Amino acid sequence: MARFGMVIDTKKCVGCMDCVVACKTENDVPDGHCRDWISQRLQGEMPDLRLTITSERCNHCDSPPCVTCCPTGASHVQDFGKVVLVDHGKCIGCKACLAACPYGARFIHPDGYADKCTFCMHRVERGLAPACVDVCPTRCMYFGDLDDPESEVSRLIATRRHFVLKPDAGTRPRIFYLE
Amino acid sequence: MIELLTTRHNPLVDPTLHVWEWQIPVYLFLGGWVAGSMVLTGYLQRQARAPGQSSVSDRLPWIGLVLISLGMGALFLDLEHKLYVWRMYLTLQPLSPMSWGGWILLLVYPVLALGALATLADGALDRWPRLGAFARQLQSHTATRWLSVANIVVGIALGIYTGILLSSLGARPLWASAVLGPLFLVSGLSAGAAFAHVIAPGHEEQEQLLRFDNLFLMTELGLIALFLIGLLTVGAVHAQAAQLLLGGPFTAVFWVLVVGLGILLPLAIQSLTLAGRIPHTVIAPLLVLSGGLALRFVIVFAGQYSEWISP
Predict the structure, then answer these.
(1) Closest among B249, B268, B201 to B50, alpha carbons compared
(2) What are phi and psi of B67, to 5 degrees?
(3) How far apart are the first and last CA of chain B?
(4) How many structural domains does chain B have?
(5) Chain A residue with minimal CA distance to B19?
(6) What domain range is A83 assigned to?
(7) In Å, how far is A124's CA from the nearest CA of chain B?
């Protein structure tokens, strides 16, 4: 069974926000909300400064606190791809998952349920890549099965230096950033 | 130096998490108060009393029903998808304290209702003879002892759950402490004892409740100390979260309203009352209740403000 993840090359990402626009269009994300976003980290001391641009979204963690805290089972890990999803019909809008996520990846949809990135499962199930990956003009994003050692994402993680966001939070995120 | 810029501006999440407003602290306070009242009711129900002697334990189940209903009303107001609330009761999620809490709340009502029914005097249910007969059965020695055990067990579960609910959300470093469960339980016991003291019918029971409340307040102080020590010693992220209460934006309200006016001052007043130096008044119980409410507000708001700061 596949375990989907994403690899993003920070050396190639220019922060153009095409991924953000593609996600909003593809998933009809309501105005004033976003499922993915761009962050810029400026690190170091003058004159040795380093700017890292990251395209961020739900990390579809292997140990997802948003799933364990959910009182109704609305937040769940789907068998196909081990992707973390929200069943809108079960969500009561208690917002525990928003508080449990260290990445701030969730928001409350204006219709009242918790919403977030789905890795575009409706596209992946048809053999397509997530919309953000598909539109990236610098081809800095890769999507695939982390459990398949021959997949592009597995080979990139095996051969390139990388990091994940907030590793100390203990959620075992599945989005890897190449340095 | 790390400077972080983000294009994300999601409501309730940015710039800092603020998903829970007044409804959740009010619910946690009322839930804790009811929990404390239930434990005290259970304890007092086990004490021998002379025939016809009234006790505050006869009044607390009625008040508990009102308070828990208000608390659940506040909880309902907080939900964003209100019409789906029944979904809570189609499942028990074993790893979700909120799911456990939903079911515990469902146990609280029958225990309180049976306790209230047992306090009705002969003749009060003349129009419903079967209910009257049931109420008389509840007044038997055996039923009273079972009700007492149910009050204590469900009360402790309710009180601890209100704290565990927060501490299970590990993404908020300020809440990542197992002490929150006992702290909220003891704060609830203190609120319960303070209020029961005001409405207790007998002087002897009043004195007993005051002694209990002083014990609860001192325990609460100890648990607050353990809570802070735990955060300061477990790691950098948690230590920074503790700074919210030790030099940050929530410091003044925490030390003045929660510790000073909510614990130390009533502790001093009640100690003087027990020593016979000043009369019983409602001032100390009011301070205790206000302090308990302030504790929930500070912990809920400061907890949301705290976050993992690693890259």
Answers:
(1) B201
(2) -65, -45
(3) 12
(4) 1
(5) A95
(6) 4-178
(7) 25
